[in-house]
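[RESIDUES AND BACKBONE]
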Amino acid sequence: MLAIQAWYGPAITQRQTFGSIGSNVAVACALWALRLPLSFNPFSALLTVAGVWLMMITLIYVSVLPAEIMTAIVIANALFIVIVYRNYRPVVVQTRGNLVDGAVPIAIFLVTFFLATQFIPDFARGVFVSFPIGLLATIYFIRRILTQDGFKSFTVYMHGAVGAGAIFVIVLHFTLLHLPIALSLATALAASLMTLTLVARIWRAPIANI
């Protein structure tokens, strides 16, 4: 979305990437809420993530939390997850799902984003970029087809994906004023993919457990 926005406008700003970093911090907090010892059903899981995300993004906006502090929160959360769950092994359950569960809401979201991106403030645009529509659709979908234990395993591993996404907007935020936009986007993408690859290798389950 950011690459297309950079091509067609409006210009990507640090205020926008600030909003995206804040949204990623809020998503990480929302994922922790799913670790509570509660029996979440698809709708309660969805409402919990959406509610915690909204509360946290509001607090970040009101407090104007600096990007440096949010970056430290993202890194600290990633290190904690990787260290504490270094030898974590997921509950593996064979399931079959429905592509429509994720594809429809994400398609609607993408169309809405590109229709609205010219008219909303930079911070809101940044939050919109990292709005967890994909996560919300996935959480509903995953909770519907997995057992409670399998769902808890999913929330652990989701931190890795969220962390990689956060690294993308963090690198973009701090390089935006120093590099051409195309190079800044490429650098952010490389950093994000490296993060995701590193986390995947650390968490790779033994063949016997697959």
